[in-house]
Amino acid sequence: MPRHTPGQRPSAAPRAASRHAASRRARWGLRCATAVSALVLAASGVGHALVSGLDSGVDRIDPFHGLGDRPQSTDGTNLLVVGVDGRDRISADQRHAYRLGGAPCDCTDTLMLVHLAADGGRASVVSLPRDSYVRLPAHTDRKTGERRPERPGKLNAAYAAGGPKLTVRTVERLTRVHVDHYLEVDFSSFMSTVDALGGVEICTPRPLRDRYSGLDLPAGTSRLNGGQALQYVRARHLDGGSDLGRVQRQQRFMASLVAKATDSGVLMNPVEFRRVASSVLESLRADHGFGADEMMALGRGLRGFSPRSSEFSTVPLRDTDYRAPGLGSTVRWDERKAARLFTALREDRPLAQAAVPRGKPGARRGPRPSPVEVAPSEIRVEVRNGTDRPGLGRRIDDRLRATGFRTTGVPANARRDDVERTTIEYDPRWDRSARSLAAALPGARLRESPGRGPVLTVTAGARHHTVRPVRAADPVSNASELRSVRGDEVNCGGKKSPGA
Question: Chain-centre distance of CA 401, in angstroms?
Answer without folding.
Answer: 24
